[in-house]
Design goal:
single chain; three-stranded antiparallel sheet
Length: 467
């Protein structure tokens, strides 16, 4: 029996409906803009950044500092149709074992250049399906990583988990290697929606895995949900949210489904005519949000929710919330090293991305070099605009004084970059001498407002719906 922790709320809809009316009047519903998990966004990376830059930037990391590490495992037993990540299917363990051997070689390249005393503040395994790894593979990979850099005190080790692709042996292995945060992809619990998006996963199985993780002292639990899926009315997303609440996760990411079949061909399997209209997408988000807030979760940025005691909420309340390729984070490290095919690294100097092709990645690393094929060298303006966008995405405001003090730039120059925002988003943005602030009803427009700070051309065809 599922314990329903919150009723379906009947809260006043006037604020949302007023926003919908204004959005329709301003023709904002059809906009497609970046998610701004980086600035510049990845579609502006170029081949001017290669293995030499990757090597130099690792060497330039300060001694005794903390860095983050991301490992991409691109393999899945089955490919979900909604997913736009770089993944590939496999029916056997052989390709995975071969890939891990190359990952270990890449880690050795990092170790050769990493300055003394560097520690890991965060380690995350993403995919793909990291829990497709056999227990011995998990242990070998963890050992190879900690041979490069040991964990810092209070480090977080998180792994993305597919409840359909894990068993007792792998759960035990996750506990042994020190995982202390698990991220479970749910998307939606409705079986009809699951069949349409190619992701069959029962609530019962998900609960079984969540309970098993906690039994092994992996207490911190994240859950990912999607709104804007085909055949997803408000009642269905409310049912899924209530089931999620019964699992008591520490964090929830509530992402809008990005239908981009021109970029992710498998999404052609999803009937576009069954997708909700932009107005309905906004209502789906508001329905889910009200349920999470009713149950005591704090809103974090544009699409996350967290228990007040969770590190993400603490970061939001202390002004240290940040944004990276996984979404919002409380990670204080200035460096994120990406390992594996397609992985992106973030350095103070810029971005570096590995070859997205596993075969190309394999060949380059075997030949003894980094597989970096593109990236971006930040200008001083890039760095300042990135900080402004991150602040806006994290706090719904930009404080000119804090940016000015941090980068030594005049507040008047920052103000000039924001000229026109209050006019373009009248009623949604408040402009003062000291900065800008997005009103509560304007928060669904945050990505569109951030677009006004983006000095690079934004092609709508390359991005997801803004709402």
């Amino acid at each position: 029996m599922i314990e329903i922790k919150a009723p379906i709320l009947s809260l006043p809809q006037r604020t949302t409906m007023d926003s919908v009316t204004q959005l329709r009047r301003l023709c904002r519903f059809d906009a497609r803009v970046p998610r701004y998990t980086s600035y510049p966004t990845a579609n502006h990376f170029n081949p001017g950044v290669g293995p030499q830059e990757m090597s130099d930037w690792i060497t330039a990391i300060p001694e005794d500092s903390a860095v983050s590490l991301y490992v991409h495992i691109p393999f899945c037993r089955r490919l979900c149709w909604f997913c736009a990540c770089r993944t590939q299917g496999t029916a056997t363990a052989a390709p995975v074992a071969g890939y891990l051997n190359i990952v270990k070689k890449e880690l050795a390249l990092v170790a050769e250049r990493l300055p003394a005393g560097v520690r890991l503040s965060r380690l995350h395994w993403g995919g793909g399906t990291p829990t497709l790894l056999a227990p011995d593979m998990m242990e070998e990979l963890t050992q190879a990583i900690t041979d490069v850099a040991p964990f810092a005190q209070g480090a977080e080790f998180s792994v993305e988990i597919d409840p359909n692709e894990i068993d007792t042996y792998r759960l035990d292995a996750l506990a042994r290697i020190g995982v202390n945060r698990a991220s479970i992809g749910v998307q939606d619990f409705d079986p009809d929606i699951q069949s349409v998006i190619g992701r069959l996963q029962t609530f019962e199985k998900t609960k079984e895995v969540a309970d098993a993780l906690r039994k092994r002292a992996i207490e911190s639990l994240n859950i990912d949900l999607l709104y804007g899926l085909p055949h997803q009315p408000e009642q269905r997303i409310a049912d899924s949210v209530q089931k999620v609440l019964s699992l008591s996760p520490d964090r929830v990411a509530l992402y809008g489904y990005a239908h981009v079949p021109w970029m992710a061909r498998r999404q052609a399997m999803i009937p576009a005519e069954a997708l909700p209209a932009p107005e309905a997408r906004l209502e789906l988000y508001e329905t889910a949000k009200r349920l999470f807030v009713w149950d005591g979760y704090q809103e974090i940025g544009i699409d996350h929710f967290a228990r007040p005691t969770d590190g993400l909420a603490v970061a939001a309340n202390t002004g240290t919330l940040r944004r990276n390729f996984q979404g919002y984070t409380d990670d204080p490290a200035d460096v994120l090293i990406g390992i594996g095919a397609s992985s992106i690294s973030r350095f103070p100097q810029g971005f570096a991305q590995n070859d997205p092709s596993t075969s190309g990645y394999h060949k380059t690393v075997v030949d003894g070099g980094f597989a970096t094929v593109r990236g971006h060298v930040d200008t001083s303006e890039d760095t300042i605009r990135a900080a402004m966008i991150e602040q806006l995405m994290s706090t719904f405001a930009i404080d000119f004084e804090s940016i000015s003090q941090r980068f030594g730039i005049a507040g008047s120059a920052l103000g000039a970059w924001c000229d026109g925002i209050d006019e373009a988003f009248a009623g949604f943005v408040s402009r003062t001498v000291g900065g800008i602030e997005i009103t509560r009803k304007g928060r669904p427009l945050t990505r569109m407002i951030a677009r006004y700070l983006d000095a690079y051309a934004v092609e709508q065809s390359g991005h997801s719906a803004a709402i």
